[in-house]
Each structure stands twice: as structure tokens, then as C-alpha cells.
Amino acid sequence: MSSDERSSVAQLLSTGNARNLFDSVEAFLFDCDGVIWKGGKLIDGVADTLEMLRSKGKKVVFVTNNSSKSRRQYAEKFHSLGITVSEDEIFSSSFAAAMFLKVNNFSPEKKVYVIGEDGILEELQLAGFTGLGGPEDGKKTGDLYVHYPIDHDKSVGAVVVGVDRYINYYKLQYGTLCVRENPGCLFIATNRDAVGHFTETQESPGAGCMVAAMCGSTEKEPILVGKPSTFMMDFLLKKFQFGCSKMCMVGDRLDTDILFGQSAGCRTLLVLSGVTTQSILQDPSNGIQPDYYTAKVSDLLELLGP
């Protein structure tokens, strides 16, 4: 699709263009929070829609910026909601952080400090790296009034920052020391989402808040591995035998999901079941327009039929 077409106003999904979209792609890439579920509740019609897509030979993949879980933990969540998904069908930003270190030959002898949750720590371990911090450091307090240098591990070669519901001053202090004082220490962000859905009814501070704090204290910008960075797309392309033009990215965020899809050359479908409203989409100041938009994922099923 040309750049002129991509910059045009998004089309409301209809019977006609839904069929055209369906016939033009081989795989649907779904964000999770606000698209598949909100908090611990599945959004209505999602299970039947995924089943329909698979029954018609479409590949279904889940690409999430939420780093709180590993691929294994996400597969367990899907199963608890009645949907069978394998770990190989899940690409999380926690996995992306570990893979970034691996493909860039990060030394296993170096350690990784995590401002984030168990998902990052588990993916790091699976990739052969030693992770420090995480929820355990949420119990610690910063040494705010001491007059001598804080002791931090000089072997930390990377600090990975994701969403962290256990964030505190100690973690920010430790991570800042590693980035500023350990030679060559990498500063990696799983994503910069401002908010996310940890409950069905409320939006909560996202990883972007934690990343912004580290940007302020380190005076550095992070390496971004989650959406809209196309780093994860490299792994998707290895999995499938077709290119990005045969994929459709389905998400609820313009600045991550839709921008990710557009940057990679995918078709894009915005659903209004998450953080983006129709008024935000159609605001004159919004410069990111998906190919299509609709209320929710199950509209695909309603428009295409079983």
C-alpha cells in the first residue's frame, strides 16, 4: 500500500472491505490488552472470532507490549480464559528484551538489572542470562541520606525497564547507578505505553512512566524493543513464509500497535475496545491513521460470517 493511501482517513470496517482485508492477508497479529481482554476478562466474541480465523486457514499471533508476563505465563492466561494458544504464537516485549540481548551477543557473564516484573526475569533466564531486581527489590528502600557511594553490582551490563507495579525509589536509584557508572551498560525499554489495562474498568500507569523516570535520572534515551519498534517483526518473519504485506496488525493503540504495523508494511485495523476512542482517532491533531477501524475484534466475525 502506498504512503498516500496510508495517510488517508481510516475506513470504518464494513462487509465489503472486511472481505477484501480478509482475502489479502495470511496472518492476523493481535495486541492483547484492550483487544483480546481487559484485565482478567475476555472481551465478548473474541474466542469465536479467533476460532473462525483459524478454521479458514489464517495464522493467528499475539504481539503484546505488556512485559509483566513471559510467553509461558501468557499461554496460561489464554488457557484460563478458554483459548488454546501455544507459546510459539506469543511475542511479548519481555521476550523481545531477552532476544535483543541474545542477537546482539550480550555476554552471559554480565548481569541484567530489571525494573519490571517476573515476565522479564523468566525470559532472561530462558535466554541464558542472569537477571537481578524485579519484584524482589520492591521490598527494598533507597538509601536516601547516606554520605558515601551506594554499592551496586559492577557486572550489570544492561538495565531493562518494563511495567512495574512494585516500582520504588530503590529500583530507580540502582538502575540509574548501573546505567551512569557501569561502562557500556545498556538501557533497554520494553515499551513506552503511557497506560495499560490491569483491570476491566480502569487504565493504569504503563511502562512509559517507569521509562520516563529513568530517562530523567540517566539523561539518556533507551533502546526500545517493543512496539512500535519493529524488532519483534524480525522473529515473526522467521516464523512465517510470507512477508509483512500479508499480515494485518490489530490493536487498540495508535502510537504503538498501528504505528508498528505501518512501519513494518502490514495492513492495520484499530479496535475501539481499548485506549483509543473514535474522537481520538478522528481528532485533526492525530497523524496516525489505520487502514480500518471498528468497535471490537468480533466485528470481523459478524461481517465475514462463521
From TrEMBL:
Keyword Isomerase belongs to the record: no
Pfam families linked to this entry: Hydrolase_6, Hydrolase_like
Catalytic activity: 2-phosphoglycolate + H2O = glycolate + phosphate
Keywords, sorted A to Z: Acetylation, Chloroplast, Hydrolase, Magnesium, Metal-binding, Phosphoprotein, Photorespiration, Plastid, Transit peptide
Annotated InterPro entries: HAD-like_sf (IPR036412), HAD-SF_hydro_IIA (IPR006357), HAD_sf (IPR023214), PGP_euk (IPR006349)
One GO MF term attached to the UniProt entry: phosphoglycolate phosphatase activity
Annotated Mg(2+) binding sites: D31, D33, D252
Entry EC no(s): 3.1.3.18
Localization (cell): Plastid, Chloroplast
UniProt keyword GTP-binding, yes or no: no
Domain of life: Eukaryota
Co-factor: note: Divalent metal ions. Mg(2+) is the most effective.
GO BP annotations, alphabetical order: photorespiration
SUPFAM superfamilies: HAD-like
Positions with a binding annotation for substrate: K227
GO cellular component terms attached to this protein's record: chloroplast
Signal peptide: none
Active site as annotated: D31 (nucleophile), D33 (proton donor)
Function: Photorespiratory enzyme that dephosphorylates the 2-phosphoglycolate produced by the RuBisCO oxygenation reaction.
Similarity field: Belongs to the HAD-like hydrolase superfamily. CbbY/CbbZ/Gph/YieH family.
Descriptive protein name: Phosphoglycolate phosphatase
Species the sequence originates in: Momordica charantia (Bitter gourd)
